Amino acid sequence: MSELWDGRLPRPVIMPLGDGALLVRFGDRLDDSANRAALLLFARLQEDPIHGVLEVVPSLVSVLLRYDFEAISPTRLGGEIALRIGQGALADRPKLQVVHIRFDGPDLSDVATELGLSIPEFILEHNARPLRVLTTGFAPGFIYCGFHPTRLIVPRRTSVRANVPAGSVLFAAGQTAIAATEIPTGWHVIGSTPFRNFLPENDPPTLVHAGDEIRFEEVR
Amino acid sequence: MGVLTHGISASGAMDRSAHAIAGRLAGAAGEAGIELTRAGMDFTVERGGMRLGWAGGAFTVRVNGTVLDWPGGTVVKAGDVVSVTPGPSGNYGYVRFGPELDVPQVMGSQSTSTRARLGGLSGRALTTGDVLEFSYPEGTPEAVVPAGRADGPVRFIWGIHAELFAPRVRQAFVAARFRVTPMMDRMGVRLADEDKVFAGSSILSLVSDPILPGDIQILGDGTPIVLMRDHQPTGGYPRIATVISADFDRFAQLRSGDPVAFVPVSVDHAHQVLRSGHP
């Protein structure tokens, strides 16, 4: 993260989410700087936890902090968050996870056609560079990674598939997503992977976290 | 620590205070119990015996055909038949046990998440023929006089997208009366917007943020939905308000057809209500 991030975060909005949480939001649109800022704050909160915080949840452009109101007031918590936003950049390098993908999804040829590419060209472009894990969530172990260059952006499907199997690799809106469980989706299904980012008997139950990098490798 | 980041909402009792009261009446040694819906439940004590406690909603409980007080508790022994049937109000009832219910700890919780299919008995609701096992000894029961619940509007804190709603829509939201619809489950409760507060609201496309129980989302068609314990972890619909913790349990017990009005409070006020212990 360090080589791409200069340590100055966009000015966030800190607002209450109910009476037990604060939401720190770095932008109204999903873009690279807002996502990096959210991930960086998340990393700092893990490195330097705040007493009274029960749970920290990173999201695409925001970070949620659930707190114990008897241990810390929201005002004081806001101050502690601001302190951590003001610190210098992290030196850590992102963790790299290789994910094997079989390009066998029902929407693969539609996506390639829409982008004006042959299937082999699309696969080459898709796997050309590692992607950052923008956030996790939505479903157990679900991973959003991005961003693809603008020439690889397609909108979501107009209809939702009731269920796609665990291990489905999904593609839309400049991102590739990996489902760890069976889910409904409006994204294009481009392939499948044996990689499962959710093993409830493990602690933690997920392997890949926001801020990590993923490199897709084709298997046949 | 929480599990939202793994994509799982916290789950747990829909009416936490009733779950706690049932536990104190049972002298529960553990945290787990059974949440009943209006489907009710019958069970037989196969062997051994134990103290039971029950609370939540207004259900009718019979032990070997004799009606007992609700909320309340008793000691049961092998062969006893316990039957719980729905009463005039509420959606969720709780039966807790003196000994500890043997269900696995999954990610630090004994809750069942039917949505993530985790915990309890294979992550599903109980069904006819299931056998529950317990670990003794039992805890110590307490006499509990449940505090009366506040009536009146459900209190809320303005939501993370409140500013995106026009001032007249926010005013109308507070002045209006909504109605609970039959479209309700552990994930969310849809409200009928009879005063058409959100009719014609333009559909907003937002970046997803994490969700918490009590968040009131306005769907694309203007339907308000109050997100409940098994809410989806993130959401991109605008959220106008979040129900305060002290009123969430009461809201969860509202039945389809019940009217509901909302009133804003400050975060400080919500904390004072929680500290006072008299919701």
Automatic annotation (TrEMBL), chain A:
<keyword id="KW-0378">Hydrolase</keyword>
<dbReference type="GO" id="GO:0016787">
    <property type="term" value="F:hydrolase activity"/>
</dbReference>
<keyword id="KW-0547">Nucleotide-binding</keyword>
<dbReference type="InterPro" id="IPR010016">
    <property type="entry name" value="PxpB"/>
</dbReference>
<keyword id="KW-0067">ATP-binding</keyword>
<dbReference type="InterPro" id="IPR003833">
    <property type="entry name" value="CT_C_D"/>
</dbReference>
<protein>
    <submittedName>
        <fullName>Allophanate hydrolase subunit 1</fullName>
    </submittedName>
</protein>
<dbReference type="InterPro" id="IPR029000">
    <property type="entry name" value="Cyclophilin-like_dom_sf"/>
</dbReference>
<dbReference type="Pfam" id="PF02682">
    <property type="entry name" value="CT_C_D"/>
</dbReference>
<feature type="domain" description="Carboxyltransferase">
    <location>
        <begin position="12"/>
        <end position="208"/>
    </location>
</feature>
Automatic annotation (TrEMBL), chain B:
<keyword id="KW-0547">Nucleotide-binding</keyword>
<keyword id="KW-0067">ATP-binding</keyword>
<dbReference type="Pfam" id="PF02626">
    <property type="entry name" value="CT_A_B"/>
</dbReference>
<dbReference type="InterPro" id="IPR052708">
    <property type="entry name" value="PxpC"/>
</dbReference>
<dbReference type="InterPro" id="IPR003778">
    <property type="entry name" value="CT_A_B"/>
</dbReference>
<feature type="domain" description="Carboxyltransferase">
    <location>
        <begin position="5"/>
        <end position="276"/>
    </location>
</feature>
<keyword id="KW-0378">Hydrolase</keyword>
<dbReference type="InterPro" id="IPR029000">
    <property type="entry name" value="Cyclophilin-like_dom_sf"/>
</dbReference>
<protein>
    <submittedName>
        <fullName>Biotin-dependent carboxyltransferase family protein</fullName>
    </submittedName>
</protein>
